[in-house]
Model the fold of this input.
Amino acid sequence: MSVPLQPAVEARLHEIGEVDLLVGIPSFNSARTIGHVVRAATAGLAKYFPDRRAAIVNSDGGSSDGTPEAVAAAEIANPGTILVSHALSPVHKIVTPYHGIPGKGSAFRTIFAIAERLKVRACAVVDSDLRSITPVWMELLLGPLIQQDFDFVSPLYLRHKYDGTITNSIVYPLTRALYGREVRQPIGGDFGFSGRLAAHYLAQPVWESNVARFGIDVWMTTTALAGGFRVCQSFLGAKIHDAKDPGADLAGMLVQVASSVFDLMNTYREVWPRVAGAEEVPLFGFPHGVGLEPVPVNVERMLAIFRQGARDLGEVWEKALEPETLAAVRHLAGASTLPFELPDRLWVRVVYEFAASYHRRVLPGEQLLRSLYPLYLGRTASFVLRTESSGADEVEAIIRALADEFVRQKPYLLALWG
Done:
């Protein structure tokens, strides 16, 4: 089904005709940062793809701070001082409001529709609030699609060890175990994808769902993996953004992310049970150390919420967890001495049992997943205590060991699911 676009946008697309490359920037109240993102994308397209026709699309969700005007005004004052070579074709800019349910998914749907109209070969989407984007990101997100015929480029960032704890403890290891591919940051936010995959995305019956509202990033990754598309990763360096204290109130985010991942397990229930093990995917770019902004942590608060959850959520946990798992969790919550540890094996069982309980609808989804939050904080506190003095390589090895445990216990998930 064709996605309707505003007449002015349709006219602009008709004027442009066809392009090889498209960069989409979904936004909402990003006037302070989006000019930098547009300039970096423009410079990267001109430098690395000077012989390709390109367009930049800003799909804006009703900003009131002048974001579309900032996009329209974003120009490179003196291209000769920034670019190695000049573009043979100008980079077209399209500013469009998106329509549909609130959320990033509606913005992406508009970008996919424009990609289809323009018959693009390769696309990239980047966040509008990036402070760390550089022109080379365009080469890393679009190059594998153009030069090596990949369909999906997942970002690989260097992140602080306490940034992205929901990804590290749930989304990455679970996605890896389910679909059998080493995609380290499935909800990274900045992706490359082929025109073929953009058309596939557009055709999926997802656009009025909560996944489109809250989980479009992990949906894009999962759909590429489950659909058998050619997937790779590109190292983009640091992603500088407003990192959140993992001990702060991330309950709403956890509910949104976990519900999206678990809903996708139902969508692709014919795919992931047949997958065994996990394989590496090709990596582009050169991984290197970069300076990272610190992420504050409050272990005492996390442990307090975990223990309070054990006192208050007994009836919910009894429905979500198997008796042996629940007994182990309660034993941990009752132990007041440090070092506190919620081990890998137990955490994997917790996640798998919650996934199966969500599938069986033992409770309303939001109620069930909100009860996972204290357990997630307990696991995060355990991770922080274990890695206080650990360097980046050691921390990554610990996260990879957890992902391996998810793979080892996948037969347990299948038994619960069946």
